[in-house]
Amino acid sequence: MNKVETFMYCKTHCLLIILTVMLIGLFGLLSCSPQPESHALLTQAQQVVDNHPDSALQLIDSIFYPEKSLNEKDYMSYLVTRVQARYKNYTDVSNDTLIFTAYNYFKLNSKNPAQTAIAAFYSGCVYRDQHNFDKAMLFYKDAEIFAAESSDIDLQGLVQYNMADLLADQDLYNEALSHYKKAENLYAQSPEKATEKRARCLSATGRIYLLLGEQDNAFEDFHKGLELARSTNNNELQSLLAQNLSIAYSEVAQYKEGITYLHQSFYLNEDSTALPLYYLNFSKLYAHTGPTDSLSFYIDKLRQTVDGSNDPYFRVSAYNLLALHEKTNENYDIAFDYQQKKIELIEEIGSRRLEKSVYEVQQKYDYVKQQTRYNHLLLQRQSIIIILLSFFLLASLLSVFLLRQVVQQKNKLLSLQGTIQILNKTAKDLQKRKSTVSGHEKQLRETLLWKFNILHKSSILKSELDQIEKMDVKKAIRKFEQIVYGKNSGSQWDSLEETIDELYPGLSHFIKNAYPQFTDTEIKVSLLSISRLPNKEIALLLNQSVYTVSMARTHIRQKMELQEPGADFCLILKQSYEKNRSS
Known about the structure:
This protein is an all-alpha fold.
């Protein structure tokens, strides 16, 4: 090879080297993170999620393309932290099913049992929001196992407390009590001196004891919890325990003591939005003790504040109390107005639960918008790379053409083949780089049962309107009471009973004959419980408190002579009913 050939050969190789370096740089530009600060945002969110979950959620939501911006491990941590922040902010997490992938990842790859326990725990929280309580408990049990392998006592207490909550929601009070006590014992061993968490556990055990009818144990735990709360100088926690004691004393008809502790709770309360609830509770207590001036004072306070409350469930209860108060004082027009507000609010509650969260919609819009922006930028980069590739391809071909004039045929062919191989590989690699955007599954929300009561009474009022207009005032009022208040009218319950009997023919008749010792309320509670309605919905349909429904369920078990507390009397009633039908 002469000097000219050597010079041209070296020049061509230099061009190929330059081309390769530029391609590597362009590929690096193409594959760079769309949000380099995402790792720092995730770290900050993890640091504040326990004490400031609202700030953590803002940091998490500012990561707009996590699957591209984070490596695999960080992305899995992001999925867990996102559910953790949303759950602590009382946001529905039922659609955050990607956390199951994160749990499987940490279960197989992580050597940190606490990290795996947290992933399992919040996976259970997702199932809990989906009302899939069996799977929620399975994941809580997994979290319990991994947490026990760690040295994190507070995490173990958190798992036990939430297992207790889940059991209490299923009316398994004895089992729930056991886990609440385990949580309290764990917090007592915590190096962080988790006094506040112990006090909250004692508040929970006290409530369970009340539901089990063990008032002495309830008072003991409430007083112990209040003593711990006072040692922390946490006014909010002291207020909660004092309010629990007020409820406990009112349940045993010791209304003066109930008023005393409610006043303590009131003075410790720092949340102005809770004032209407205090006015409601004071009104209920003074209605039993007799001082009409105090009752009138709190009734007036309740009237002034009820419409400004943002809690629809509180307003339903308040309107109901005000309607009953005005009815007792024979102020029927005012009572009618409050009852009408109550009815309209119940219907509004049903409508709201069917609507999507505005926050969720906005977050989804921002997320898609940021991804679209990134995809547009990615397309621009690809266009630039194609143009540059074309330019360098032309330059390479020109160099090969010059080399062919001065270099032997064999060297030219080898050089050309090498160039073609490099370009072919580059083209194939470019074609493989595509961006996909995963979609989000949507779930339908469950329809509501309480609207049945509204539609039923509305239809009756419309059908009776002409007759009411022709009656004198007293008869019209009595007729209205029969429809709205249900006085001397079984139409509302009859309709519910007919609906249940359509599903279980003759069930109501069977229960009334088989258990004549049941009261009317207990018959109704048993029928609605067999239909698997939660206590809150049963209470609303029967216009009773949740506590009254819970006590009715306890009395049913006692009258059925079920020895085990919390036994599933619904299953026993169904089996007896089916056996009776088959015979």
